[in-house]
Structures are given as C-alpha cells and as structure tokens.
Amino acid sequence: MSGGQFVSNCTADAMARAAEVLASGALVAFPTETVYGLGADATSADAVARIYEVKGRPADHPLIVHIADMHDIAQWSDDTPDYAIALARAFWPGPMTLILKRSPLAKDFITGGQETVGLRVPNHVVALALLNEFKKIGGKGIAAPSANRFGHVSPTNADAVSNELSEYLSSEDLILDGGASLVGVESTIIDCTTESPKILRPGAITEEMIEEVSKLQLSYDATDIRVSGALDNHYSPAAQVLLDIEPQPGDGYIALSRFETPEGVHRLASPKNEEEFARLMYAALRSADTQKLSRVVVKEPEGGGISIAIRDRLQRASRGR
Ligand code: TXA
Ligand code: MG
Q1: Among residues 201, 156, 158, which one has the least CA distance to residue 177?
Q2: Residues β-bridged to residue 236
Q3: Residue 110 CA: which ligand 1 atom is closest?
Q4: At what angle do helices 12-23 and 125-136 cross, to 10 degrees?
C-alpha cells in the first residue's frame, strides 16, 4: 500500500542517489525553506504526469521549476527583464518565484500551456544539494509543487509529506527528510512579464523588498491575482478554519503568544512573533486534524511583512476544502 522510501540521512551519497531517482522518472519529495516540494524531472512529460497523479491536481495547472542557481534562468526563459535579474541576484537562493517568458525547454506540461514559466532557486542545503547532483548528471531543473494533495495544507516537515502522500507514492519514490521548513509559507510569486513586477502570491519576500531592489513601483491588476490563489490551493485542513472570533471550549486555537487561551480551548500554537507564526502555522492546522477537532480558530497577525502572506493563506483556508 504505502510507498515512498523515507531518507533521513541526507549525505552527499544519498543526494547523488536521489538525483538518479529523479533521472529515472520517479518522484523525490524534498525540503525547501518555504514548504516541502514533490519533485520530478522538469523535462520529462511522464515524470511530471506522475506529480499530477500523486497530488490529485488538475493537469492544466503550471508548476514551478526549481533550478540550482540563477545562471540556469537562461535555459528556461527568454527575454528576461533586467529587474528580474536584479531580483534573482538579491533574493536567490530564497523564497521567491519569478514568472518569466518561457524558452522552448519549458513545455506545455510544465507551464499549463501558458507562454510563461515559474522559476525558483530554493534556499535549503538539501534542496540545493539535490539540484546540484541532478545537474551533474544532466538534469535541467526539478518541477515541484508543494507536496500535499490538491487543496490541502502544504507540508512543512517530512512526516507531513508522508501522511499526505505515502499511499499514492510508489516504492521507487523518495521522501527526503531535511527537518522543518524555516519560512513556513510558500514563495512570493512575482510576474516579471510586464514593464514592472506584479505580486501574484504574497510570501516572505515583501512588496517593499521588491520595490527597493527593482527600483520600480509594483503594478496591480486585480484580475491576475486569480492565477496562483483562488483557483488553486485552499490550504485547508479537514477542520473548519474560523478567523478572529472568540474560540469556544473544544475548539483549536492558533494565536500569537500574547493572547491567552480561554478555558477548555486546545492551544495548537503560540508563536512569539509573525515569522514564527508563519513557520508553525501549517503544522498547527494539521495538528487540528490529528486531534480530530472540528473547528480551529485563528487570530490573524496584523500589519505588513510576512503577515500579509499569513492572512492570504488563512483566508483561503477559511473557505474550506
Ligand atoms: O514555495 C513554493 O513556491 C513551493 C516550494 C515547493 O517551492 N512550491 C509551491 O508550488 O508552492 P505550488 O505548485 O503548490 O504553487 C505554485 C503556484 C501555483 O499556484 C501555480 O499556479 C503558480 O505557482 N504558477 C506556476 N507557474 C506559473 C506560471 N507560469 N504563471 C502563473 N502562475 C504560475
Ligand atoms: Mg501548493
């Protein structure tokens, strides 16, 4: 029944073997600083088809291609604007995905038939080791969505990946255990196909950071926001997610540590600040399901920075599966 070998000892040897697994067309779930990804050879239609199968995701959704370093941009995209190069230089490896005009290497099975491709260099030793080993044997990039079933909460540790996917993985597939993801919410997605950058999904790389580096004002276009959010992930646990109401006895509760836990409420996380909130949030939502709670109340952090990404995901989660 359950597949996907668990690899907790991510030595150089183990990474070289994991790269061979990718090259053979099988899947490798791997840690990144944002969330865990479910990886496949980004040039193989068959390998990428297995991602969709395992995730239960509609096949017309584009995937992010993970690359070893910014020099690999040129393989995957054409006409990259200067501001995108500046962003890559400033924030890669890191929690940022650039949407660029695709090169012929980025086939329809990666881009969902769009003329653009999403690229990211993740900031995690295991992910970078895997990317570099894969590159050594001719790999051009690793396509990887978050390693959860479609619509579910993204996994931020290897156990969560295993709980989500092991019944759908086969014995050739691997799950690399690189500890808990340090950022905890998915990368900022930036559309770089227009005159000035546009945020499609908020993340740890904020509006201010992007404007400072690109020296451009972000453009806004309400109709584009749908690309990466509303249609796609709902980031939802089985429990009902309720925002900013008073928790009742029996409810799960996630809030910054300065908020007290009312009598009879199950506290699922008490992060000290917004960064820790982002890091713990998905595991806390998952624990509501492990504890078989029917409701989880979350007090959203206020303000800018990473809190914008936190509220974005929580609002989607609150719409349910
Ligand atoms: O942090 C992350 O970005 C994680 C880690 C594993 O890197 N990945 C991730 O992938 O969140 P996924 O597939 O769960 O979400 C990627 C989002 C999707 O909503 C997809 O629609 C959007 O990126 N996307 C990918 N390529 C795109 C493109 N060419 N144009 C517009 N949106 C794109
Ligand atoms: Mg996802």
Answers
A1: 158
A2: 152
A3: 26
A4: 60
Query: Which atom of ligand 1 is closest in space to residue 229's alpha carbon?
Result: 19
Pocket (CB within 6 angstroms of ligand 1): 32, 34-35, 37, 61-64, 97, 99, 111, 114, 116-118, 120, 122, 144-146, 186-187, 189, 200, 227-228, 232
Distance 155 CA to ligand 2 centre (A): 9
pLDDT score of 234: 74
Q: Please say if the pLDDT value at position 178 is more than 50.
A: yes
- CA–CA gap between residue 282 and residue 267 (Å, rounded): 14
pLDDT tens-digit series, residues 83-140: 999 999 999 999 999 999 999 999 999 999 999 999 999 999 999 999 999 999 999 9
pLDDT in tens, 34-82: 999 999 999 999 999 999 999 998 878 999 999 999 999 999 999 999 9
Q: Are 98 and 120 in contact (CB under 8 A)?
A: yes
